[in-house]
Amino acid sequence: MSLSPTDLPAPEGPGSVSRAPNLPARFTDTFTSRYVTTGDLRLHAVTGGEGPALLLLAGWPQTWYAWRLLMPALARDFHVVAADPRGVGLSDKPLDGYDTGTLARDMVALMDSLGHRRFAMVGHDIGMWTGYALAADHPDRLDRLAVAEATIPGLSPTPPLLGSREANDRLWHFAFNRLTDVNEQLVRGREHLYFGHQFATKSAKALPDYAVQHYVDTLAADPEALRSSFAFYRALDTTIAQNQRRRSRRLSLPVLAIGGAENLGASVGATMKPAADHVESLVLPGCGHYPAEEAPEAMLSALTAFLAPYRDKQAAPHAPTTRGSEAQ
């Protein structure tokens, strides 16, 4: 039986709010770390704000910390839940369950434990994979879905093995991360070289050194964290098979697809349009793979406009104005 979030010890360590570096001013006045158990899995989430629920899910190799620049403004209108999925940050790191069907069920269970039956979601990178799975497998749970900077294995066309140099430079980590053991042996002790290269080559505007160091330190702190970071890719055969089945169930909810002009650009929208009936595509100029950190103001503006109907619909039964908040 799951414990109540209030029964669990407060998260500690570098992955928690209390130990995260260079947070926006007064961040800890609004947001706290908490553990939530879902069955036999313990997940870490950073929560705060008032209003309808909004789930934020980052991608590889990041944690909840990727959303830090957007969270204070979003918390004015939403109860924000920035989650670390299984295998990430302070969440548990089991040996299996890294396919997107399981990851989506984890997030549904997390939101159930926090008292949120229906919610909106923003997913980046692998968080976008999970967002698609959640919308397809649990259509009654999501009101709106925003996704950023990924294509979806099993939904998007598979790039050729011997593609262009540009494609190879952008995608080579997929094959490397799927290896069984040798990748861990090669990366362990060289985490800053490998993950630092990923951040440096996929961003148009360099992420701050302290942020890159935070992500690298989190991955280097525990051998299980490194294994888990590759587990999402080792589960791709299962995820691809799931997505091939999901293709027959088109999404009916509104979808916002965000790409960085210097990375995936319009291909994010092109990925979602065959899968969903209502897709709005946005390309952020001068931005690479990490829009929440490279272009936080532009991304916040896009999310605020996209989520406004969800915010107002949730507030309407409780207030005579279109603005307001609802505690779920």
Automatic annotation (TrEMBL):
One of its GO terms (biological process) is acylglycerol catabolic process. The keyword DNA-binding does not apply. Residues 1-24 are annotated as: Disordered. InterPro entries: AB_hydrolase_1, AB_hydrolase_fold, AB_hydrolase_sf, Epox_hydrolase-like. It comes from the Bacteria. One of its GO terms (molecular function) is monoacylglycerol lipase activity. Residues 52-296 form the AB hydrolase-1 domain. GO terms for cellular component: membrane. Keywords: Hydrolase. Gene3D superfamilies: alpha/beta hydrolase. PANTHER family: HYDROLASE, PUTATIVE (AFU_ORTHOLOGUE AFUA_2G14860)-RELATED, MONOACYLGLYCEROL LIPASE. This is Hydrolase. It comes from Streptomyces minutiscleroticus.
